[in-house]
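Record type: ASSEMBLY
Status: queued
Input:
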Amino acid sequence: MKKILISPSILSGDFSQLGNEIKKLEKAGADMIHVDVMDGHFVPNLTIGPPVIKSLRKHTNLPFDVHLMISPVHRYIKNFAEAGSDIITIHPEATDNLDESINLIKSLGKKVGVSLNPNTPINIIEDFLSKIDLVLIMSVNPGFGGQKFMPEVLEKIKKINEIKIKKNMTFDIEVDGGINFDNSKSVIEAGANILVSGTTIFYDNKGDIKKNIDTLKTN
Ligand code: DX5
Ligand code: ZN
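Status: finished
Output:
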């Protein structure tokens, strides 16, 4: 059986307590920490930037899975790398030259992720798959936590997984948006091996994050 990793999104955490939230997530069995960076331009919401990531770095040894929803992204990649990101995920629409941005992330010694919005087709990234460590499939339109999972993306997860198997590739398939106990199984069956979750992890079962992480993994 493939190993399922959980990447809780701190977007649903208490922003006045982020250091403690991350420690709690680590203790509860999180595999990495998903950091949603939004610029009020690429998406209609604003969150945090490199200084916050830098100050959170000392609170955990877990990898920081940094999801950049900012445009133009290229000029900020170095700042996010230096702040302590481990995986840097970008959207193809947010850069003039996807190849250059991928190469920059790799040259900084970080894992590179590329994210596909619900309406973005796989063929945009197909030529780059051999250089990518992670494909992040959005199952909501990015911008806000707490949105409803779009079941039509299951087909896309299946397709990217088929390509991965056919070409004998090893990239992770991560899915982000509206993941809950009802859909996690179908997302995993479709081919995902990393689940992002904010609302379910922080609010389900009266905020029992350990139980919620365990249930997402084993459901
Ligand atoms: C959406 C973000 C997600 C989101 C996940 O733009 O990328 O990471 O916050 O949160 P839930 O699980 O609440 O959909
Ligand atoms: Zn995200």
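Annotation: The chain has one domain: 5-218.
Annotation: The beta strands are 5-8, 33-38, 64-69, 87-90, 111-116, 134-138, 172-176, 194-197.
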